[in-house]
Amino acid sequence: MRKEGRWSKSPGEREKEAKAEKERGIAGWAPKTKLGLEVKSGKIKNIDEILDKKRKILEAEITDSLLDLKSDLIFIGQSKGKFGGGKRRAWKQTQRKTMEGSVPTFSTLAIVGDENGHIGMGTGRAAETLPAREKAIRKAKLNIMKVRRVCGAFDCSCSESHTIPFEVRGKSGSVRVILIPAPQGTGLVIGNEIKKVMKLTGIKDIYSKSFGKKRTTLNFVRACIDALNKTNRGQEALKK
Q: From CA 76, how far away is CA 73, in angstroms rounded?
């Protein structure tokens, strides 16, 4: 006998429910900004019109209306284990000591993307895991950016947009990341957690080099996002 509940449903059923919930949210959305009113009225129909003009997105419903986004959580925490050995997990737990006892707080890092050249990153912090996830996803939608994709490898002559146009470098804290174009069929030669970022961006082939304390996954992802953001700049600006 099949158990009832949220987690007893198949991935397809959960995806349909999430899509229906998103449509209901957009239908009942009352814009509070000028940009939101332009999107709601249909004056703006492409997210690139907003990003190219560097207009600030203050409502998550704007990206929901213009893009078909998928989301994923990055493993930035670690579960408790013997001698500090636990498995990596999406929730980073901290505690604050008070007169009443310990107050736990959960932090998480979310990535959203349409697998077609748009990616966003956001962090969330709350007393429980689900509110932290919702905060992170909402902030990621507000921080959406465009990533330029082409066939940029010197030993590849296909016409598909499967990699970045040229070598880019990103930095966050002690972590430095170098992303290098790769020919078709190479795959994602990069860390496991960063593969989530590349897949949601729509990049299929890439080489990479990384330096610094890469176990600090938050800085590792931020450095990667910083590098991807530079694909929209001229090659001369990258040499600075």
A: 9
